[in-house]
Amino acid sequence: MSTLPVYRWHLAPDGLATRRQLRARNLRPGGQDVAAQLERPRRRGHPPLVAHLYRVDLAVPVRPMTPGRWRAHAAMMRARRTCPGCFLDAGYVIPPSLGSCVTCAYPEEQRAA
Q1: In 3D, which of 111, 14, 110 has the Cα closest to residue 57?
Q2: Tell me: the pLDDT tens digits for 25-57?
Q3: Which of 11, 12, 71, 93 shows the greatest Cβ crowding within 10 Å of its Cβ?
Q4: Do 44 and 51 form a contact (C-beta atoms < 8 A)?
């Protein structure tokens, strides 16, 4: 078993990137193994934050969105916006902490206004 090289925050060499950095370049890891790790120190007593680094030269382009994927994405977002209490589209993603739209979550404030 081989160990991965570990780099400190902001000290990774060129040619390595995180998933987010690859995505910003319209790339994805494409099944390659993690090439290295990036560690960001935290306050005393906490373990460091770790990010995986991938080789940019082995990354492949992001798959394009097909019409079927767009439909599935739209249906998923519609479900996240639909209130389970009143079954109306709230116009925003309903927070899981409320579980329903603001009107259904706080009906007494709506009557007072």
Answers
A1: 14
A2: 999 999 999 999 999 988 888 999 999 999 999
A3: 12
A4: no
- Total H helices, total E strands in the chain: 4, 6
Q: What are phi and psi of 59, to 5 degrees?
A: -70, 150
> Phi first, then psi: what are they for 62, rounded to 5°?
-70, 140
Structure tokens, 113 = 């206004």
The torsion angle over the Cα atoms of residues 80, 86, 90 and 92, rounded to 10 degrees, is -30
Based on its alpha-carbon atoms, the radius of gyration of the chain, rounded to whole angstroms, reads 22
d(C-alpha 50, C-alpha 29), whole Å: 17
Report how far residue 103's alpha carbon sits from residue 84's, in angstroms, rounded to the nearest whole number. Answer: 12
CA 25 to chain centre: 16
Whole-number average pLDDT of the chain:
91
Query: CA 85 to CA 83: how far, in whole Å?
Result: 5
CA torsion 10-13-15-18 (nearest 10°) is: -30
- Which phi and psi (to 5°) does residue 31 adopt? 85, 0
